[in-house]
Design a protein that fits this description.
By secondary structure, this protein is an alpha+beta fold. The protein has a single domain, classed as Beta-Lactamase, CATH 3.30.450.20. Helices cover 41% and strands 26% of the residues. It contains 5 helices and 5 strands, in the order H-E-E-H-H-H-E-E-E-H. A 5-stranded antiparallel sheet has the order 2-1-5-4-3, with helices on both faces. Strand 3 and strand 4 form a beta hairpin. The radius of gyration is 18 Å and the shape is globular. The mean pLDDT is 93.
Length: 148
């Protein structure tokens, strides 16, 4: 396969995957936003591209997010390694969601960070069901009658 064909396949993979694929440059401006990101966060690519990642980060998490982002860009890697993180996100309609995200710092051939990649999916329904189940188990293990 030629390099040109390989690049086209890579592009189609990113564009067509159902998972959100988001690449932000060193300053945290969105440069790649696929159909999966549109489905998860509700912003069409035309609205998201060129915007700060703040459009999908809840206000109360932004300070911590940007501190970690800056550290990762400076280090050329994330502290999470290959772990997936459940985090909060914002939908275009203002609703909050839980998202499974994996992160990577993308570096050039000289090892300089070009930006950050996040790949994720909306897990709000699963997260809330798990939380309700954990609460119910805790109530039962506590010996008390369930409330409500």
């Amino acid at each position: 396969m030629s390099a040109e064909m390989q690049d086209a396949v890579y592009r189609r993979i990113v564009e067509q995957t159902t998972d959100a694929v988001i690449f932000a440059d060193r300053e945290g401006l969105i440069r790649i936003w696929n159909r999966g990101a549109e489905a998860v966060f509700g912003f069409p690519a035309a609205e998201a591209l060129g915007q700060s990642l703040d459009i999908i980060i809840p206000e109360e998490l932004r300070k911590r997010h940007w501190e970690g982002y800056k550290r990762a860009i400076e280090a050329g890697r994330t502290r999470l390694g290959s772990r997936v993180l459940v985090t909060r996100g914002l939908h275009r309609d203002g609703s909050r969601l839980y998202v499974d995200l994996s992160f990577a710092v993308i570096v050039d051939d000289e090892g300089r960070a070009e930006g950050s990649l996040a790949i994720g999916r909306n897990v709000t329904e699963r997260y809330l069901a798990d939380r309700a189940l954990r609460k119910r188990v805790a109530e039962l293990e506590g010996g008390g009658a369930p409330s409500g």
